[in-house]
Amino acid sequence: MNLKEYLSQKEPVRMPRVIIEEHQYIVASNSKHSNGEVRRRVYFKTKNALLAGVEYCLIGGSFYTTDYDGNPKNRSCFRII
What are the structural domain ranges in the chain? Predict the structure, then answer.
């Protein structure tokens, strides 16, 4: 499912696989951790109240919600390919 389909669901599906295209998000910063993992702070380019202003952490091809310090917390349904 794509982002438009996800945001327009009449009956939301729990944890679908939502493919995000490069033009739909902004990379705020990059960081590399000791295990060689590259983490990126990302935001969606949208005015949708569900996603606007929410910070995610992009690791590999998966988006993660973040804690107060910006560390990855829970894997979300959003993915890039």
Answer: 3-79
